[in-house]
Task: inverse folding
């Protein structure tokens, strides 16, 4: 237990001193501010361009924006946040293989599964904090400018998206234990995520795919029922556990 | 302390270690000598459970070494040839981290950390490891390896990449820690071995071709060498042609590998033919000649 905590402390120190904590905090805060800002600025932008647009034959009467436009932006911008997060954290294992820093820790008797657990826990914690900060900022602005009550199933839809992000993180952990370079980690994680997206295009198996969890818009507009997501949630939770469970024997077998 | 029996390891179709036997006695400074690429690091990694042996058994302090998760590592302090640390930490932070993952308690860590940083001369170092020189990294490496008072300290070529001052510092530290632990270190720098080792083993072609106490090996190595310098180059030629144990090193310099008192025959020949000599010197058997002999055999 103490070894696990010590390794987590080291991971945390690394996040701070490498500057990744600051960069990712800035990014997720900016994303949080950007969602309501874009929604707020849309009518003004259209007005600015209305003359030019009128010349080309497009006429706008008036555009009304509300919290829904901002939440629409939220779900549209989240993939970018997740991709940047995975991109910056994809070398969390591979950096240690390449530099050989794990050798000393392991020869001191640190058990390998603790390396996996410590890193997975730190990543989960970071993803959760970044994600919910971004959410809280958007929520705050939306409440101030408009009214969040118009969005249906809001909490449920953002929990679904958070869960999808968590699965992506676990995928990255799993690929980190089998790959040697962070490029392979990115390719593996991106490849699997893309595959689930392709699966979700097939109507028959759509409800099993984790990537339906990203479709928060259908939920907040009330186009989809909460029950329609149940299977995907169960599948995603199972996949998270499977990824983590496979990572441990994978790292045990790895030559370091 | 460490016992290796019939160890074998191949990479692809190349057999690196082919039936290695080695015994390291307690409280010795054991020099593990071999050419570059002889398999020293491979052997050490197998002792640490970082590589899986194809055959054979390794025991540390009587316990068998298993690949992957090995409990025997709690007896071992390891210093790799190029130690890599978390460069964003300072030396005391790194030692604290090491102490915590080995399960030492807080006060023990603080005390041991101060003691070891003092021993390796990093007591006043406040900078992050990022800015450390090679010598400083090696010294920190010894400190981290000794942290939990291991019974066996394994150093992989600790002096190879260092300048003479750095080398002397490391060797002095290794000498100092002998009372606390057994030291096994690999090297190809023979002067280091002669300076501090009590026991040695030569690794060649995947097997140990010679091992024992350094003094015994040197005493038991009977062949002696004579260096002979003649005034004229022509005379040197004549001697080479007459005595097959003579080898030429320079124009008028010869080296004679002594067997069956050949030196007296040579001296006889010199006297009879009135060959003027500049110099005749008896060479002490050195590790270098031993090493060459082992490698050439």
Result:
């Amino acid at each position: 237990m103490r070894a696990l905590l010590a390794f987590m402390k080291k991971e945390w120190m690394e996040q701070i001193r490498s500057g990744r904590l600051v960069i990712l905090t800035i990014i997720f805060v900016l994303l949080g501010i950007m969602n309501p800002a874009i929604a707020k600025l849309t009518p003004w932008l259209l007005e600015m361009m209305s003359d030019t647009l009128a010349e080309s034959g497009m006429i706008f009467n008036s555009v009304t924006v509300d919290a829904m436009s901002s939440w629409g932006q939220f779900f549209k911008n989240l993939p970018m946040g997740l991709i940047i997060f995975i991109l910056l954290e994809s070398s969390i294992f591979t950096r240690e293989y390449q530099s050989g820093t794990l050798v000393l820790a392991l020869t001191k008797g640190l058990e390998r599964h603790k390396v996996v657990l410590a890193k997975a826990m730190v990543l989960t914690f970071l993803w959760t904090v970044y994600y919910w900060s971004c959410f809280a900022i958007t929520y705050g602005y939306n409440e101030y400018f408009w009214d969040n009550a118009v969005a249906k199933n809001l909490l449920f839809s953002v929990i679904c998206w958070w869960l999808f992000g968590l699965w992506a993180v676990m995928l990255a952990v799993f690929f980190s234990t089998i790959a040697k370079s962070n490029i392979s980690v990115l390719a593996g994680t991106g490849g699997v995520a893309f595959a689930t997206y392709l699966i979700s295009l097939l109507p028959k198996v759509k409800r099993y795919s984790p990537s339906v969890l990203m479709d928060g818009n259908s939920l907040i507009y009330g186009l989809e029922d909460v029950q329609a997501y149940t299977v995907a949630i169960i599948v995603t939770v199972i996949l998270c556990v499977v990824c983590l469970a496979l990572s441990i024997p994978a790292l045990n077998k790895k030559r370091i | 302390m460490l016992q290796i029996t019939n160890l074998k390891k191949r990479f692809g179709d190349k057999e690196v270690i082919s039936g290695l036997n080695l015994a390291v006695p307690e409280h010795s400074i054991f020099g593990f000598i071999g050419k570059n690429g002889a398999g020293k690091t491979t052997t050490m990694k197998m002792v640490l459970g970082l590589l899986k042996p194809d055959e054979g058994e390794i025991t540390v302090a009587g316990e068998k070494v298993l690949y992957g998760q090995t409990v025997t590592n709690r007896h071992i302090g390891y210093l790799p040839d190029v130690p890599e640390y978390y460069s964003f930490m300072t030396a005391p932070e790194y030692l604290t981290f090491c102490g915590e993952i080995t399960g030492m308690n807080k006060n023990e860590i603080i005390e041991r950390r101060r003691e070891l940083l003092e021993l390796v001369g990093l007591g006043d170092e406040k900078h992050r490891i990022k800015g450390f020189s090679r010598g400083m990294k090696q010294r920190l490496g010894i400190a981290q390896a000794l942290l939990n008072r291991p019974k066996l300290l394994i150093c992989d070529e600790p002096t190879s990449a260092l300048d003479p001052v750095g080398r002397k510092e490391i060797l002095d530290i290794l000498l100092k820690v002998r009372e606390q632990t057994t030291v096994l270190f690999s090297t190809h720098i023979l002067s280091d071995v002669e300076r501090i080792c009590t026991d040695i083993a030569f690794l060649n072609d995947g097997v140990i071709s010679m091992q024992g106490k350094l003094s015994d090996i040197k005493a038991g190595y009977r062949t002696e060498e004579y260096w002979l310098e003649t005034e004229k180059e022509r005379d040197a030629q004549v001697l080479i042609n007459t005595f097959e144990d003579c080898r030429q090193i320079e124009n008028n310099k010869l080296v004679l590998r002594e067997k069956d008192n050949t030196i007296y025959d040579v001296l006889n020949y010199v006297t009879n033919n009135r060959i003027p000599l500049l110099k005749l010197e008896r060479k002490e058997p050195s590790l270098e000649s031993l090493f060459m002999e082992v490698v050439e055999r």
